[in-house]
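Q: I'm writing up a methods section and want to include an example of the input and output format. Could you take the sequence below and give the corresponding predicted structure tokens, formatted cleanly so I can copy it straight into the document?
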Amino acid sequence: MVALPESVSKTVAAIDAAIEADQEGRHGYRIPAGGAGNACDRKLWYDFRWATMPEVFDAQKLRIFETGKIYETRLLAYLRKSGQEVVEFDGVKDDGTPKQIGISFARGHGFGYLDAETFNIPEAPTVWHVAELKTHKAKSFAYLLSQGVRKSKPEHFAQFQLYMHKRGRSRAQYVAVNKDTDEIKTWRFDYDFEFCAQLEARCERIAFSDWAPPRISEKPINFPCGFCRHADKCHGTEWPEINCRTCLHADVRDEGVWHCVRHAVDLSREDQNRGCGSHLFLPDLVPGEQIDANEAGEWVDYILHDDGKRWRDEAGGKA
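A: Here is the clean output for your methods example:
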């Protein structure tokens, strides 16, 4: 029988719609261990300050993420089959479900979950390792093999280094799989204290700064700016989101605490996302030059870059 002609499969459309409806688009609460090694300080600062709407992915991208999780489960099973002891969890949550092993850094404003910790590795059977498992396309896998983990995947390298740093481990095991061929490669790494100390200090500096760090490039067409979701704010005149993290009244404190100095209250995630009528933008987030301010009157004046006009940011002026 000849297949019925369809420009767009209704079944595929229904699958995609269902997958996309399940995603929860929200800002990351802390600097992720998996992103701490990103080369651009300014990108991390924009992420942390919730300057741009949370990313919303299409169904195909979400399926790719899910495939990565499926591969992770398979790889952990393979490690167990090889004779390694694999520990994924550290206690239980309040609801009784297993609690994944996690680490905190940057005075509570950074966080990451380990894939696992492993023991009885054939190359070093008496040493515990943090284990990081990653999937790669064929091109990425080839680059990984030719350049090594640290150069080809600096964010992965930073991630497992932070895990060793906070878990008191001296070794890491990096397991990579080529999704196109199912080829598996593994690497082992020593703990690098100096690298970790510098990385954590960098993340603290980014988290506790009210000012945007320097751009990684002054040309928006240069890599990686052309692929950054913050490019229109960093290099252009797009306005940031309105929430507590883009407000100059927000004070970043130890233990992961966000505090509003205007209302003298610690802020929950919901509070931060909601914001309030007293919002005033952090000056570095305004696409203009600050020229005047009045603390008692709760306003700040700018000359905007796009049209050269004077604009006043004032409490209650964004309702």
